[in-house]
Design brief:
The chain is an alpha/beta fold. It has six helices and 19 strands. It is 19% helix and 17% strand. The chain has an eight-stranded parallel β-sheet with strand order 1-2-3-4-5-6-7-8. A six-stranded mixed β-sheet has the order 9-13-14-12-11-10, covered by helices on one side. Strands 15-17-18 form a three-stranded antiparallel β-sheet, with helices on one face. A hairpin with a 7-residue loop joins β13 and β14. α3 packs antiparallel against α4, α3 packs antiparallel against α6 and α4 runs antiparallel to α5. The N and C termini lie far apart (51 Å). 40% of the residues are buried.
Length: 429
């Protein structure tokens, strides 16, 4: 734990990274003593509402996090940081974004869970932008100038007040991960009824994991070992937990999905939850969430290697599953290796519906465009699988490479759909 007192004592001289969380109400001037080396500054979970006018003295600063503070507008002094790359002001009170605050160097901007009603047209000057997180605000529209951000790959606009999905978004050449649930234009299809399971019938054993939307625990129901996910109920960077739960139910059964047992009834805190099959311990995550450097692309354990046969099996399962989802009007919106579980045989389970969105299959143009947008994400996943292979000369991998290239064609309409990809990969197995 780094402290302000230690900073004042000069113990961080030469530091490249600093994190202070001590309910600060003012920016500590001592931070400027690290100007020659500081690259990452995290001032999240304080009570700050402004940054100093001479912040630009931090010439080497690349990453600035000021989440969970009291800012009411995005500070204009961000424009004075020449090396700025990643900015995070999640869960503040921001209602205003001055045009000048949008430093054109920014590659990754996080403004989740604020009070923003409008994005300035100057966002279009951020040509390096790859990742833009705007979920949980009050946006009623997006500026068309955002279409000039030709490198934008991931966009989160869920849980806003948008009355429609801008059609120009669907032509952006690199956009691969788009989450838009919880807006005024969204539909929520009827889900097939699944049974309710009383909370009293469950014996919670231990926590298995925790994500932005909920907590997963191992439990017993009679003699069966199962998994239980309890949703937190708050907006996440991807969207609303209630939409995640509904998408999982609508998705129905598929060999690539963890099977649902039922919904939870009678939780003592009236929380919503799902009961699922327990994933066997032999499964592990294929990928690791993107790093600061990789931004929108997963990273991988340096020791992880797979065979061409495993790659084909994984790719085939995912293609089949996502074709199944789109047949039901569901865009997963988070198609990544880090949401993919595999075992040593290449058996595959896919999950995490936190960003999932529903769309109207009857609107043919919109439906085709959204599916082909997600096809781009699948193309990146194929690229990851190929790079992990121990036998790059395998004949089938040449075809997988061709499919990967087709999937990320900058002309969105030129990309195939998932049913075609499923059949093409099946021919290689």
């Amino acid at each position: 734990m780094q402290t302000l007192q230690q900073l004042r004592e000069g113990k961080y001289q030469g530091a490249t990274s600093l994190k202070l969380s001590e309910r600060l109400t003012e920016f500590p001037r001592e931070i400027f003593e690290l100007a020659a080396t500081l690259e990452i500054l995290d001032l999240s979970r304080n009570q700050l509402n402004s940054l100093p006018g001479d912040l630009g003295r931090l010439k080497r600063l690349k990453i600035l996090f000021c989440s969970e503070n009291l800012f009411t507008k995005l500070p204009e002094v961000l424009a004075d940081l020449p090396s700025l790359d990643i900015v995070g002001f999640k869960s503040n009170l921001i209602s205003e974004i001055p045009a000048r605050a949008l430093n054109p160097n920014i590659r990754w901007l996080i403004l989740t869970n604020n009070r923003i009603e409008e994005i300035p047209a100057e966002i279009g000057n951020c040509h390096r932008m790859q990742k833009l997180m705007l979920a949980g605000n009050r946006l009623t529209s997006l500026p068309e100038e955002l279409s000039r951000c030709r490198n934008l790959s991931l966009l989160r606009i869920a849980a806003n007040r948008l009355t429609g999905l801008p059609v120009w978004l669907l032509d952006m050449p690199k956009l691969s991960w788009l989450a838009f649930s919880g807006n005024l234009f969204n539909i929520k299809p009827q889900a097939e009824a699944i049974g309710f399971i009383s909370w009293d019938a469950l014996q919670i054993d231990k926590q298995l994991g925790e994500g932005a939307s909920g907590i997963i625990s191992k439990a017993k129901m009679g003699d069966d070992e199962i998994a239980v996910k309890i949703f937190k109920g708050a907006v996440t960077s991807d969207g609303l937990p209630e939409d995640e739960m509904h998408a999982y139910i609508v998705a129905g059964a598929h060999p690539g999905l963890v099977q649902l047992r039922g919904q939870i009834a009678g939780h003592p805190e009236d929380k919503k939850g799902l009961v699922m099959e327990l994933i066997p311990q032999r499964f592990f995550n294929l990928g690791i969430t993107p790093s600061f450097e990789s931004c929108t692309r997963d990273v991988f354990d340096k020791d992880l290697k797979i065979s061409a046969g495993q790659a084909l099996k994984i790719a085939g399962t995912i293609a089949s599953l996502v074709a199944h989802l789109h047949s039901k009007g569901i865009m997963h919106a988070d198609l990544y290796a880090h949401n993919t579980l595999i075992d040593d045989e290449g058996n595959t389970l896919f999950g995490d519906f936190g960003a999932a969105c529903f769309y109207d299959r009857q609107d043919t143009r919109m439906a085709q465009a959204l599916e082909r947008l997600e096809v781009s994400a699948f193309g990146h996943l194929l690229d990851d699988l190929i790079c992990l292979c121990t036998d790059p000369g395998h004949a089938a991998l040449k075809r997988l490479r061709e499919l990967s290239d087709i999937c990320v064609d900058p002309e969105v309409a030129a990309r195939p759909d998932f049913s075609w990809l499923d059949s093409e990969i099946a021919l290689l197995s």
